[in-house]
Design brief:
Blueprint: E1 5-8, H1 19-28, E2 33-35, H2 44-52, E3 57-59, E4 62-65, H3 73-90, E5 94-99, H4 127-145, E6 150-153, H5 164-171, E7 179-181, H6 185-190, H7 195-202, E8 209-211, E9 213-214, H8 216-225, H9 229-234, E10 238-239, H10 248-257, E11 263-266, H11 276-289
Parallel strand pairs: 1-11, 2-3, 4-5, 5-6, 6-7, 8-11
Antiparallel strand pairs: 9-10
Helix pairs in contact: 2-3, 3-4, 7-10
Length: 292
C-alpha cells in the first residue's frame, strides 16, 4: 500500500520507563511514529519537537469517554475541540474516539469488564443511551472536522461497544460524513467478530487502524470459562502480528483496494516475549514481509 504510515503504540512498554526511552526503542524497531497525546504545560509545538528528536512522527491520539451520558456532553465536546487543535498542529488528521465503560453495570448485573469476549443481549446499553452516544459522536465529529481532523470510532473489548452487533447499531446512528472508523483488529476478533468482514463492509469509512493479533485458543477458553478482561490478558490473549488468528493479508488487500492512506498502529498490549522492544521488532518484521 502506498502512502501508509506504520506506527507503534507505547502500551507494550512498562510504565516505569521514560517516554524518551520508549520513543527511542520504537524508532530503533523501525516504526515511523507513535501515538501522541498532550502533556500538561507542554505546547503542541513542543510535543512535535519531542517526537522529531527521535526521528518519529506523531500518530493519532485517543479520546476515550462516557459518550452515552448526557451530563458528560459539554466536557466531552471541550476535550474533542482541544484534542483536534493539538492533532492539527502536530500534523495528524485523525483522532481515535472510543467508549469507556469497563465498570458499566449491565442489566445482567455484571460489569462490561467481566463480560469481555462473551457479551450477551443483557449486557448492552439501553436504546436511549445508544441514541445519545450516536448523537454525541456526530457532534464530536463535526467539531474535530473544523480542524481538519477526522473522528474515528474505535472498538474495544470490555467497553460498552464491543460486539459487531453493537458497533453496527451505533454506526447506524451516526453520519458517515462526520464519524469515521479506526477499528482494532484484535478487539474485533476477541469479541467474536470477523475483522476481514468488518473491514470489507466498512472500508470507505476506515481512516486509521490499530493492528492487534490474538491467541484464538485463549479467547475460546475465556468465553467457555467466562473470564474477565484481566484474566484473558493474564492467560496470553495478545500475541505479535502474524502469530495469531487475524488474517492481515486479507485486511491489507481490502484497505489497498479502498485506497487507504492513513496510519496503521501496531499494538501488543501485553507481550509474552522478554521485552517490549523484541515484541515491536517481531511485529515490524511481519509487516515488512507483507510489503509495509
Amino acid at each position: 500500500m502506498k502512502h501508509v504510515l506504520v506506527g507503534c503504540g507505547q502500551i507494550t512498554w512498562p510504565r516505569n520507563l521514560s517516554e524518551e526511552q520508549v520513543l527511542a526503542e520504537i524508532a530503533a524497531a523501525g516504526y515511523a511514529g507513535a501515538p501522541a497525546s498532550p502533556r500538561p504545560a507542554e505546547s503542541a509545538e513542543a510535543a512535535l519537537a519531542r517526537f522529531q528528536r527521535f526521528g518519529l512522527r506523531p500518530a493519532p491520539g485517543y479520546l476515550g469517554a462516557e459518550f452515552w451520558k448526557p451530563e458528560q456532553r459539554d466536557a466531552i465536546l471541550g476535550r474533542a475541540a482541544d484534542l483536534a487543535r493539538f492533532a492539527r498542529i502536530i500534523g495528524c488528521d485523525a483522532l481515535y474516539v472510543a467508549p469507556a465503560g469497563f465498570d458499566y453495570v449491565t442489566r445482567s448485573g455484571r460489569t462490561r469488564s467481566q463480560t469481555s469476549g462473551h457479551v450477551t443481549a443483557d449486557d448492552g446499553l439501553t436504546d436511549e443511551e445508544l441514541r445519545h452516544f450516536g448523537a454525541l459522536l456526530n457532534e464530536v465529529g463535526a467539531i474535530t472536522l473544523r480542524e481538519g481532523v477526522r473522528s474515528c470510532f474505535h472498538n474495544h473489548v470490555g467497553a460498552v461497544i464491543e460486539t459487531r452487533e453493537e458497533i453496527d447499531r451505533l454506526l447506524a446512528l451516526t453520519d458517515p460524513e462526520l464519524v469515521f472508523l479506526g477499528p482494532d483488529t484484535g478487539h474485533l476478533a476477541w469479541a467474536g467478530a470477523d475483522p476481514v468482514a468488518f473491514c470489507r463492509d466498512y472500508a470507505p469509512r476506515i481512516k486509521t487502524m490499530h493492528l492487534k493479533d490474538i491467541n484464538s485458543a485463549v479467547a475460546a477458553q475465556g468465553r467457555a470459562e467466562q473470564w474477565g478482561y484481566a484474566e484473558c490478558q493474564q492467560h496470553g490473549i495478545w500475541t505479535e502480528l502474524g502469530q495469531g488468528a487475524v488474517d492481515f493479508p486479507a485486511i491489507f488487500e481490502i484497505l489497498n483496494t479502498a485506497g487507504f492512506t492513513g496510519w496503521l498502529i501496531v499494538e501488543t498490549d501485553v507481550t509474552q516475549l522478554p521485552t517490549a522492544l523484541e515484541s515491536a521488532r517481531v511485529s515490524r518484521a511481519y509487516l515488512a514481509s507483507q510489503g509495509l
